[in-house]
Amino acid sequence: MATTAYAQAAALLPDDVLAAVLALAKRLSGKSRLVFKGHDFELQKVFRKLVREHRSPLLDQFVFSDRGPDPYSPILSESISRLQLSGLVGRENPDYEMVFLRHAGEQYFDRELKARFTKPQMKELRRVAGRFLELVDK
Question: How many angstroms separate the CA atoms of 36 and 43, rounded?
Fold first, then answer.
């Protein structure tokens, strides 16, 4: 059974998982817009904590290196960049690097991504998204 969960998760791109977490976090927030401080080092810390706390096959793609002053996941950095380049997330206020989910990101989740996740994966993603909100609201 665990092998199946890992096989299903491996078929998903890290970008898919990140986009789903952001879309679900926006919905869980109850706000009209999901905006959070997204300096690379802050986002790295948040996801490192999520990976450690949730031990989920969905998050296993975000591998962190412990070399250097802080743990760093190149995959996470690349995923957020690709989501930005594709117009699913945006950044504003260069001084604070505020990241926000664009309407296109929500539409992409509804039209494309939601069907790629199993019910247990969606349940896990909701838990991760809820914790993500707690961490970025601090």
Answer: 9
